[in-house]
Amino acid sequence: MPPLIAPSFLAFGFGGGEIVMVLVVVLILFGGERMPELARGLGKTLREFKKATSGVEEEIKRALSEPPPVKRTTKPVVSEIATLPPPPTPPAPPPPETPPQA
Question: Of 13, 24, 34, 100, which is the most buried if we count CB atoms within 10 A?
């Protein structure tokens, strides 16, 4: 025998009897006139929630598919060497010390 309620309605462990009881309580509390209005509001809320979650999901997928940007932390050495000034010339050595004559 096929199920009376589609499996998608059995989310969170709610069976057919529980769903019918919830609908009866909602009908008693709000009346038949407000039921379509409540269902419309619930539909809009679910639609907006799905849009938001799909937007976040797409952003995550896009971020994961892009390679991270490569940051250069050092400059090329060759160009730096070309711009360095010439090294200073070393000072002249002192003249050799001559022994004192007596």
Answer: 34
pLDDT tens-digit series, residues 10-23: 556 778 888 888 88
- Rg, C-alpha atoms of the chain: 41
The answer to whether residues 38 and 26 touch, using CB atoms and an 8 Å cutoff, is yes
Q: Where are the domains of the chain?
A: 32-67
Average pLDDT estimate for 59-77:
78
CB within 8 A of 9, min separation 6: which ones? Answer: 16, 19
Q: Which residues touch 38 (CB under 8 Å, ≥6 apart)?
A: 26, 30
63 vs 43: CA distance, rounded Å = 30
Candidates 26, 25, 51; CA nearest to 38 is 26
Q: Sorting pLDDT into bands at 50, 70 and 90, what band is 45? A: very high
